[in-house]
Amino acid sequence: QVQLVESGGGLVQAGGSLRLSCAASGNIFSINFMGWYRQAPGKQRELVARITSGGTTTYADSVKGRFTISRDNAENTVYLQMNSLKPEDTAVYYCHAFIVIITTRREYSYWGQGTQVTVSS
User: Fold this and answer.
1) Helix (H) or strand (E) holding 23
2) Which runs of consecutive H residues, i.e. helices, occur in the chain?
3) pLDDT by residue (tens digit) across 25-57?
């Protein structure tokens, strides 16, 4: 009933930039938190950044000053602008959202399928 579709991953050299997008669609009444997580090989999934519907943001210490999260509430879309990328940013990036669906007016957790970001040195 609800889908999160990511785009924008790819291969970039260290110091470069990428912009990830994630669009939510389906049976949506409202969206509270939207965010990005990442998982590198052999490591646990970790929070990168998240943003509330009011625009309050939270960032992992490792990306502060380099990454910027934003959202378009009208389009149910969240973005992650990644600048000054480092090889250690290489991971699969997952979009996540807490979404209230129309039919039940209850909140559920949803994940995107993931997009690969590879930063070469």
Assistant:
1) strand 18-26
2) none
3) 999 999 999 999 999 999 999 999 999 999 999
